[in-house]
Amino acid sequence: MADTNSAYKFTQLMKDNLKNTFKFFGESPHGATIIACSIAIFKGILRPTFTMMDKKSDPETKKYAAMREGLTEVAAFPLYAVTPWIAGKIVDKFVSKETEEFAKKRIKTNAKFLAICASTLIIPAVCNIMQPPIMAAYKRSQDAKKAKMAENMPKAITLNKPSFSGNSLPVRNLNKSNYGMRVGN
Amino acid sequence: MNINSMLQPLANKNFTYLTKGIVGAVVFTTVLKAVGRPAFIMTDKRNKDPEAKKYTATKEFLYQILCLGLTFAMVIPTQHITFAFSKKLMKGIKELEKIKTYGAFKEVCKDIDEFTPKAIKLLGTKEKGLTGTAREKFNLVKGADEMGSFISSLVGLTIVAPLISHEILHPVMHAIGMGKKDNNIGKPTETFLADAKVPNDKTNRLNENA
């Protein structure tokens, strides 16, 4: 009996939540902003993940590409969120009080939409300014890491070059003694 | 001309119909990306290699076109399926009973504050717009439609497009003669003797003597 009751409560809760979500999407004038921001968030997470999952690419190239893709969306998200808000504020400030309420609502929706469109065009320029210093810093840190690793590595043993000159007998090349497949010997 | 009078054209009814929905936003931004991004790449002065610029710009353009196609391919069926389920919410509401098809629903959707002439004809009403319970229920159906569009465009643009772009764009790029030339660096190359133009003096002399 308790199980049936809790199942009913759960179903009711889900129904209410779904109804509230429908209501929100149906009445909200921020559709364009919501979808633009959501795409930026999901792309920011998924695109670098897909890039890192690619087995064919070089690991260093993958890291670099993933970081660039992530940074693009990091630049895109605040632009998509802030520009429509600014557009809304401009409309609130400059539209005269005599304008009808529904007309004001339309102006606001369209101004926000145009702000989203403007952001779409601005993003590549912003990325072009923002990305190079960050990527350069990342490359420097990677190079420093590599140099440090090379320093800590034990130095390779260098063998004397065997001499074949003159009448001396050929000296067996120690470098090749355990290398490859040999027949006989 | 003050800002107020400049903002007034934004109250246009038809433009609002295009901009307030999620699909409109996705389509407009994708088209802008398809035009704006390649243009930006081509005008970028940091990259000096015109061939590389052309390649990147074409690839970006094709990717955005693919995104646009995916949006339509995923959103349109989703909208119809969502409407088939959500129209039950309008049952019992006299004003909305005549909305049977998705096309009729979209016509009423254009403006629920001030019906279009087509919507008035369709609903057979003398009212200017939707009010009370009818408005509330209609907004629920509209919300379901928007949510369906939201989820399908999100899945299309952020999951499906990156996954299939590699499989589709490379053959297309090759087909239009823009395949990346340095793709084979480091890979073993096949050389056929018939294609190899290696000058062989001895063979040539023998041929001449024969």
Assembly status: heterodimer
Shape of chain B: elongated
Low-confidence stretches of chain B: 182-199
Which structural class do you get from the secondary structure elements of chain A? mainly alpha
Helix count, DSSP H or I runs of 4 or more residues of chain B:
8
| Element order of chain B: H for helix, E for strand | HHHHHHHH
Number of separate domains of chain B: 1
Global shape of chain A? elongated
| Secondary-structure content class of chain B | mainly alpha
Order of helices and strands of chain A: HHHH
Biggest sheet statistics of chain A = none
The amount of beta strand of chain A, in percent, is: under 5%
What does this structure look like?
The complex is a heterodimer of chains A (185) and B (210). Chain A has 185 residues and is mainly α. Chain A has one domain. In chain A, helix 2 packs antiparallel against helix 3 and helix 3 runs antiparallel to helix 4. The C terminus of chain A is likely disordered. Helices cover 67% and strands 0% of the residues of chain B. By secondary structure, chain B is mainly alpha-helical. Chain B starts with a helix and ends with a helix. In chain B, helix 3 runs antiparallel to helix 4 and helix 4 packs antiparallel against helix 7. Chain B has one domain. Chain B is built from eight helices and no strands. At the A-B interface, helix 1, helix 2, helix 3 and helix 4 of A face helix 1, helix 2, helix 3 and helix 7 of B.
